[in-house]
Amino acid sequence: MEKEKVPSAIITLTAGIVITLVSLWVGQNHGLMPEQVSEQAPLVDNFFDVMMTIGTALFLVVEGAIVIAMIRFRRRKGDDTDAEPIIGNLPLEAFWTAIPAIIVIGLGIYSVEVYRDMGGFEPAHHHVAKADTPAHIASMPGSAMAAPLVADTEGMESDQAVAPKGAKYGFGAAPQREGQTADLVVNVTGLQFAWIFNYADSGVVAGELHVPIGKDVQLNLSAQDVIHSFWVPQFRLKQDAIPGQETELRFVATKTGTYPVVCAELCGGYHGAMRTQLIVHTPEEYDAWLEENRIAQQQNPNQTVAVNPADLSESEFLEPYAANLGVDEKTLTQLHSMHES
Q1: 189 with 131: CB under 8 angstroms?
Q2: Which residues, 6 or more positions from 13, have their beta carbon under 8 angstroms from its beta carbon?
Q3: Residue 304 above 90 pLDDT?
């Protein structure tokens, strides 16, 4: 008795259900993103989850079709005949052209919605904190390198230390905060190869970014030399710092902790070391940190860490990294001697 074949429609439907379920599970459980610590992070993650779901489905369909074709249409032993000539299939070609087009258009619309919800289309409500204290940079633990700001004879920042002012753009206030002044404004300067954070309203300058949890924070970004990119992965925020072009980031931290700040734009030979930290405090801890640094910098107004990585020898630059890796000074010297010879 001949076996009854399962209708192809049933097979296709079953495969579609399986692929859909697997794709949805992967889209929600991929574990590829770091923790969320800002109000903006869920917007980006939801978009990424959708892309992972669609990408998984497309992968399964394409690779599944390849595997099925390899098995079903493989050359049988002893079969030396020519394959059946296939000229084309207009409905199939239209289908596999239309589906990717719909997906790309849909993702494009979704990405614009995310950008809008993060305040990308709102005017940048650019509030610049005015410096009223001498330019100084305190000790900068966690910074790639502490670099100096140039100060004039009266102790104020000179024009040499500030990028020329131009038009402003970037992520402004989110719609629910439109027109509101940020709770905290920090002027951020990127330079080879460090980030400088100026809390000018309080006279504090640091090599790490400290913010209070739950407060609306505005970063005014500028660059002193080349293009840098201010990136905090856990916050899902990234914005270029451009010479002569002010940009802005605005965010609200939702979890205390210490998070890496990375330069995501190749900016020179020591680009990989241009890292620092964003530290989220409770309001009480933040106020204590700010007051402690304000007093310390008032007592030492000329305290400056003037180190430019480009001026260091290889041994001097690598020394702190070698210590962290357990390489002693003698071994480091030997390695450099071998390299020079």
Answers
A1: no
A2: none
A3: no
